[in-house]
Design goal:
Layout: E1 4-7, E2 14-22, H1 26-32, E3 45-51, E4 54-64, E5 75-82, H2 84-96, E6 100-101, H3 106-113, H4 119-130, H5 134-144, H6 147-170, H7 179-200, H8 205-211, E7 213-219, H9 225-233, E8 251-257, E9 260-266, H10 276-291, E10 294-300, H11 309-314, E11 319-324, E12 350-351, H12 360-375, H13 386-401, H14 411-429, H15 435-444
Parallel strand pairs: 1-6, 7-9, 7-10, 10-11, 11-12
Antiparallel strand pairs: 1-2, 2-5, 3-4, 4-5, 8-9
Helix pairs in contact: 4-5, 6-14, 6-15, 7-13, 13-14
The structure holds guanosine-5'-triphosphate and magnesium ion.
Magnesium ion is lined by residues 225-226, 238, 246-247, 266.
Length: 449
């Protein structure tokens, strides 16, 4: 396999840049750079590095021989001064030595191939590098540490143990499975499928943290939706005007609210229109409202108590109702303009004035509270990708087939379901190896009895 190298730090001017080399030629490359002898493993040393006779830099060198390295191969790290020129000169020197520039993700790919991490850990690493908020970073680092993979691996081991028992009986077709054994078996399978179901029943918390919580601001034209978006983003992103029907496209902004990743979408005011562009805008607004994790349904205080019917119709249990422009009816008793909202929504409308900047703290804390309720970190590891969910559901279906005692009349069929469940879970971590079934069989069952 080729020896690869890449700049591990971001491109651009920086105090330090790190070039990482992985492969059997890593040690030789260090010597060719003019380093007198390979440093002791995992000890930082400062050394001059040369391209031919030309001094490139005085750098910090780390040597991590196989197998105790990130990739499992010989790895060298060169921490040099981070100018474009220095990095380019070193890269060119390594290229001339016959080293190969790494493909995206190639170090991690090699780590996976060499069993240094499983697929969920590699995903966790990718998510950690992409993390933009605290909640995302926390979730990713836990996954990278193997929490999710270990959970799945423990489930797969249980299935493999069960399979080993069943397979033993396949070798003796004349013997029926004893009913007591079947009962015990079903009990264990039910426990396991219960754990998997509970894990799947998570409101997609982990997936939402990974991709961001989607909020759509919806309501009639001119109620102040774009003004709210600009206020939340603290930037002048959307056009605000007194002309109803200003916003047409969906305008999105990504925010960090209380450490949670949130994508807020401003949408076209919903109303009947003859204008083709506005009609399309309204269609997009409705679609976005449907697809989002939460809607902020905005109403106009000046209309109290006869609020826009269309907007009231959008309110459901995933809505936050906001009455804006409360400055327009200043003598109104507080609360007298509160709209009748469906009981299912279970929350009181929040009265604000974006013009006078009132009620906004309350609005922010209401949004934060919802985020905390929906996305609060749990002690248990979370599903973070649809891939995990699909494979777990597949495994669950096979396990649930085994809750029916009739299936045990055909031992092969029971075994087939177990095997399929183990394979599905094994695909999540990327460790599918049926050899293990055989190992388990001989370990836990006395065949010669
Ligand atoms: N009096 C008052 N006016 C406001 C308030 N908030 C926004 N406005 C004004 O209301 C008008 C409409 O605001 P926008 O934010 O463009 O409303 P919108 O809901 O995005 O409207 P469309 O894009 O047409 O759907 C603008 O003139 C704003 O300055 C408020 O709290 N009080
Ligand atoms: Mg607007």
């Amino acid at each position: 396999m080729s020896t690869i190298f890449a700049e591990s730090t971001a491109r651009g001017k920086a105090g330090i840049a790190v070039i990482r080399i992985s492969g059997s030629g890593a040690g030789k490359a260090l010597l060719k750079l003019g380093i007198k002898k390979i440093p002791q493993p995992r000890r930082a040393v400062v050394a001059k590095i040369y391209g031919g006779s030309e001094l490139i830099d005085s750098a910090l060198i780390l040597w991590m021989p196989a197998p105790h390295s990130f990739t499992g191969e010989d790895v060298a790290e060169i921490h040099l001064h981070g100018s474009r020129a220095t990095v380019n000169i070193l890269s060119k020197t390594l290229l001339d030595m016959g080293l190969t520039p790494a493909e995206p993700g190639e170090f991690t790919r090699r780590a996976l191939m060499n069993g240094k991490m499983d697929l969920t850990e590699a995903e966790g690493l990718a998510d950690l590098i992409d993390a933009e908020t605290r909640a995302q970073a926390k979730q990713a680092v836990r996954q990278m540490q193997g929490e999710l993979g270990n959970l799945y691996e423990s489930w797969r081991e249980k299935i493999i143990q069960a399979l080993a028992h069943i397979e033993a009986y396949i070798d003796f077709p004349d013997e029926d499975l004893p009913p007591a054994l079947i009962q015990d078996f079903i009990k264990k399978i039910k426990e396991l499928s219960g754990s998997i179901s509970a894990h799947l029943d998570d409101n997609k918390r982990g997936e939402i943290i990974r991709r961001g919580f989607h909020v759509a601001i919806v309501g009639a034209p001119n109620v102040g939706k774009s003004t709210l978006l600009n206020w939340l983003a603290r930037r002048d992103i959307a056009i605000v005007s007194a002309i109803p029907g200003t916003t047409r496209d969906v305008i999105e902004v990504n925010l960090d609210l209380a450490g949670f990743p949130v994508t807020i979408a401003d949408t076209a005011g919903i109303r009947e229109s003859k204008d083709a562009i506005e009609i399309e805008g309204v269609r997009r607004a409705r679609l976005r409202a449907e697809e989002s994790d939460m809607k902020i349904v905005m109403l106009d205080a000046a209309e109290a108590p006869d609020f826009n019917k269309e907007s009231l119709g959008l309110i459901d249990e995933n809505s936050l109702v906001v009455v804006n422009k409360c400055d327009l009816s200043p003598r109104r008793k507080p609360g007298s303009g509160k709209p009748q909202i469906p009981a299912s929504a279970g929350m009181t409308p929040i009265e604000i004035s974006l013009k006078n900047q009132t009620g906004l703290d309350e609005l922010l804390s209401a949004i934060t509270k919802i985020l905390e309720q929906r996305l609060a970190p749990s002690d248990a590891p979370q599903i973070t990708r649809e891939r995990h969910r699909a494979l777990l559901s597949e495994a669950l279906t096979h396990l649930q087939n085994l809750e029916n005692p009739a299936i045990f009349k055909t031992t092969e069929l029971a075994a087939e379901n177990l095997r399929a469940a183990a394979t599905a879970i094994g695909k999540i971590t990327g460790r599918i190896d049926l050899e293990e079934v055989l190992d388990e069989l001989f370990k836990s069952f006395c065949i010669g009895k």
